Structures are given as structure tokens and as C-alpha cells.
Amino acid sequence: MFRSSMTLMDVRLCQKCCKRSLSSKQLIYEKYGHPPDVLNLVTKEVGKVGADEVRVRWMGAPINPADINQLQGVYPRKPPLPAVGGMEGFGEVEEVGSEVTTLRAGDWVLPGISNAGSWRTLGNHYERDLFKIAKDLPFDSAATLQVNPPTAYRMLKDFVNLKAGDLVVQNGANSSVGRCVIELCKLWNIRTVNIVRDRKNLDVLVRELKEIGADEVFTEEEMKKESTNRAKNAQLALNCVGGRNAMMLSTCLSNKGVMITYGGMSKKPVPTGSLIFKDIKLVGFWISQWYTNQDNKKDREAMFEELQDLIKHGKLHPPKINKLKFEDWKTAITNAMNSSGTKQLLVMQ
Questions:
Q1: Which parts of the chain span the membrane according to its record (predicted)?
Q2: Are both 162 and 73 inside the same structural domain?
Q3: Which of 24, 151, 284, 285 is the most buried (most CB within 10 A)?
Q4: 164 and 226 within one domain
Q5: Alpha-carbon torsion 173, 175, 176, 177, what sign?
Q6: Catalytic residue among 29, 75, 153, 291
Q7: Between the CA of residue 63 and those of 171, 181, 193, what are the distances in Å?
Q8: CA dist., res. 54 & res. 98, Å (int)
Q9: What is the CATH number of the domain that holds 236?
């Protein structure tokens, strides 16, 4: 009898202990530098969920250029160190605190802030720092929903009142944002002229972009003449390159047109000549900044509802994905730094 009681007590103690000492694999960095060198995969204990916290089991998280910049120490927002890497991804809610009202166990969520740290298997997060999404999205689409589709959506919606038949010109058209721009413009009957870098098998890329809705696809050399032909009088230009490429975009704009810069891959300046002679407007856009503005909360909810609906109906697609196990993070990071056109996606579960 005594032996049996002790066994039952041991089991209960073990259950309490196991519940209290959940562990999480996390990719952390304690200093800035070369990403493969500063990252380390560690196992840490996850504490009890606070009253206003949510425990999330992260399922998939991509590696974006912004993640690389963060690790290098050149990203505008820097979390306190040591920090968990990863700005994007999705996970499933496992447990909620006593004061949490908008989420429950089983919900799927995105990070609501840029420094959430999604490169982990398990984590406790404040309810306010998470955003609920539909549970029936494809894995790749859910993991890449937070950054690129909203960036494309907001740039097309917020700066120019685009109408059916209007023209948008963009560089970096093969990027994840560029592809989203093409698909959204096709859905909204807006024409696109798209600039890509010259490469081997260019015809394959051109055909691929036209299949998802691009009207025209040109290299930089081809655009020298097309800026006064099929690419002229655009209402909106989207720039993620800078330098000569951005100059070509500015010459395509109509008077009082708008050029949005959301990246600077060439690390060269944006031209200013058209500012004077065509009265164009140059603006910058950063989706992380947009998210932090509480005035955008309703617009954010409406946007995600629309984007998720498009994904479910097969009208908006994720970028090309290369899935790797979480333990293969070094390969994923190296691939992300050295390859273009394919997004590296860490699969945690």
C-alpha cells in the first residue's frame, strides 16, 4: 500500500515537473557579425505563461534579407541582446494566460512585431504581439504571409489611387514582393512593366513572370528604349534597387507620378532629376513601420482578410521555397546569403 502510494505521488510530481520545464530550441545571437558565425542553436527552458501571454509552438519561419541585415547589425531596429532571430513565420497557440481574450489554444498566429524571434520551436509572447490567421492556409503561404504580400498590397493601395488600365513599373520583379505586385495588379486589372537582371535562361524567367500576370518583362538594357515606349506614363514606380535602375523608373513616370523605394540592393543613390522637371514624388515604405502605427489596425485586419481569401482561392501564391529542417539552419542561412529567387524556410516541427 505504501509502495503504491509513493508511485502515484512520483507520477504526479513528474507530471508537474515536466509541465513546468518545457524546453525550446532557439537560434540566438549575442553579438552582430557574419550570420553563420554569430548564430547558435541552443536549448532553453520555457517558463510559465503569464496572465497576458500566449505560448506558441512555431511551425515554420523563412529567412529574409531583413533577417540577414539584423544579424549583421545594419537593420534599423535592434532588439536587446542576446536575442532570438527571425522576424517572420507562423505558429500554433498551445496555451493562453488568464487575461488573454483574443486567442485560444489551436489558433494559428503571425508575429505582430518585427523582433518577435520566430526562429524557435516554442516561446511565450505577449498577446498584443501576435496576429491571428486562418488555420486552413497552405504551410508555405502561412509562413511567408507577414512581410511580402502586405508590402506589395500597401504600396499599391496607399500612395496612388490606381484604376483599371493604369500602369505600374517596378524593378526587382523577380523578388517575392515583385511577384506579389504582379499577381495583385493582374487581379485588379492594372498593367505592369517589370525590370529584371539579365541572366542565363532569361526566357524561362520572362515566361514564368508572364504566366503569373506580368504584361511586360525587360532587362535593364532593354528598358533604355522601352522607357519612352511601352513603359511610359506610369502612375506608380516601385524601386528596391536604386542607382541607374531607379533612374530608368523615374523616366517612366508621368508628371506628378510617385516612386516608392522599399529597398536598396545596389546601395546606390536614387536619382533626383525628375523631381524637378516632372514634379514626381519620391517616398519610402517599410512594412514594419506601418505595423507599429495603431491607426492602421482596422486596415491591417481588412488587408489580411483579403490576402488570405486570395491565397485560399489560388490567386496569390507563395514565393519559391526551399524547406530545411531547423537543425540544418547553417545551410539555410548560407543559401539565403548566396542565392536569389528561392526563399529558405526553416521547418521547426
A1: none
A2: no
A3: 151
A4: yes
A5: negative
A6: 75
A7: 21, 20, 28
A8: 10
A9: 3.40.50.720
What CA–CA distance (Å, rounded) separates 332 from 154? 29
Cβ–Cβ < 8 Å for 55, 93: yes
Nearest CA to 131 out of 96, 97, 103 is that of 103
Are residues 127 and 246 both part of a single domain?
Answer: no
Q: What is the pLDDT of residues 64-122, one digit of tens each?
A: 999 999 999 999 889 999 999 999 999 999 999 999 999 999 999 999 887 889 999 99
Give the E-state strand segments of the chain in sequence order: 22-29, 39-46, 53-63, 83-84, 90-96, 108-111, 122-126, 130-133, 167-170, 191-196, 216-219, 234-239, 253-261, 281-284, 321-325, 343-347
Identify the pLDDT of residue 343.
95
Number of neighbouring beta carbons within 10 Å of residue 205: 17
Q: Is 291 a catalytic residue?
A: no
Distance between CA atoms of residues 91 and 304, nearest Å: 16
Same domain, 272 and 335: no
Is the confidence at residue 139, as pLDDT, over 70? yes
Report residue 50 as a C-alpha cell: 503569464
C-alpha torsion 284→133→347→331, nearest 10: 0
Question: What whole-number distance in Å separates Cα of residue 21 and Cα of residue 38?
Answer: 27
Report the phi/psi class of residue 279: left, alpha or beta, with left for phi > 0 and alpha for psi in -120 to 50. left
264 is a domain residue:
yes
63-101: b (≥16 Cβ within 10 Å) or e:
bbbbbbebbeeebeeebeeebbbbbbbbbbbbbbbeebe
Assess whether 105 and 170 both reside in one domain.
Answer: no
Residue 242 is given by DSSP the state B
User: Residue 35 sits in which domain range?
Assistant: 23-144+318-347
If DSSP codes are grouped into helix, strand and coil, which group holds residue 120? strand
Give the whole-angstrom CA distance, residue 278 versus residue 256: 6
Distance separating alpha carbons of residues 264 and 241, to the nearest angstrom: 4
Contact by Cβ (8 Å): 239, 245: yes
Question: Would residue 343 count as lying in a domain?
Answer: yes
Total domains present in the chain: 2
